[in-house]
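Quick one: structure tokens for this chain, please?
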Amino acid sequence: MKLPDLYFRIRENGALVFRVDAENRQGRLELDPLAFANVRNGEIRVQGARELSEAERARIEAWITARQAVLAAREAEDVGACVEAINATAHWAQTKASDGEIEAVASDLLMAMHDLRGVLVRRQAEAQGED
């Protein structure tokens, strides 16, 4: 099995990047901390006094681009799932929920929907103002 040159330990806003070393004297696989890759702003911060080769920098930049695409796709899926959840919740409230169940969730749901509606209306108005 061919090991990668770099390993990315995913974190909330990017990844810690390690150089993979399998050819050391002990014959053990070692992960040498190399850099931190930030997917929000594309920044690559090298750890300590280490230096990145051009190939490593290019590989990290490619990872950042690919990771940003994955996160964008997940975000779009989450919005679609939210629409489905709202529809399922409406059906549940109309057909299955008891008065007590409605009482338990109504305030939270109404506040969340009011907030979402306000954001959507404002964003649509801003977009129409730009046209």
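The chain has two helices and four strands.
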